[in-house]
């Protein structure tokens, strides 16, 4: 456990400084308008099982179909929504549509676990659990088909304020996932106190991990920790065959990334799946 912290510290000292906070090009008024006028659309990225390649679920990733700017990615408006009290409405819209889509897929014979990203501000709202449960009932789904992803770097700073909500969601059988593991400063001891079911290892420790000792060490340590806790492991940012083979060799449970598929509109999923099914047998390492 403490080795992970030490490794991460080393990693941060080594890693080139990235752009930092995403540039905020949009004003609160613009984002509020986008939310209210239905300009947000859900895209979905497949999550597949590493041993079999089978499609297990999708992660909901919101996009903004901007009338002038085209497709805008969440890094350019989620921060604004969080800072200006818009994130609550935004999440509720994304979640409601994701559950409605899950129902359409279910009715078409495709049962998928749906992951939705939530912010700490959502969890801080006392009625959040009831809202989520209400929407699941309305969509005719089961609570265990939904996974809520919370980013690790935010989780620890506000964990206490939201522990109540996290615990109640867990009691209702809604799964919790720790997103972008490795980007925060959590220790194993802190994580142990949070009721979660899945970790997603951040893509900065996945892509190229087989060729880089530090990434490799952080990845394998995270995997070992998850195994000890008996929780599901997901690798994000699987971009090539080498990444995929590395996950297989390490025994990671699920994979997500461009090697498998980019996030796509719901209507594209069946065609992607048909194509993926033809690729699957070829994925085994030689
Ligand atoms: P995230 O939850 O960690 O989602 C993964 C991000 O990695 C997505 O970016 C996805 O498109 C991208 N990605 C997936 N596979 C690969 C790959 O192989 N290589 C690379 N380089 N990138 C890959 P996206 O869609 O731009 O989303 C960015 C972040 O915005 C998400 O990170 C999530 O934290 C946040 N977000 C997205 N939708 C929502 C939402 O509805 N609510 C909230 N609160 N946050 C959201
Ligand atoms: Mg996520
Ligand atoms: Mg992530
Ligand atoms: Mg990420």
From TrEMBL:
Keyword field contains Phosphoprotein: yes
The UniProt record lists the keyword Secreted: no
Protein's UniProt name: Diguanylate cyclase
Domain EAL: 24-277
Biological source species: Metallibacterium scheffleri
Gene Ontology biological process terms, A to Z: phosphorelay signal transduction system
Keywords attached to this entry: Phosphoprotein
Part of the intact protein present: 116 to 401 of 401
GO molecular function: cyclic-guanylate-specific phosphodiesterase activity
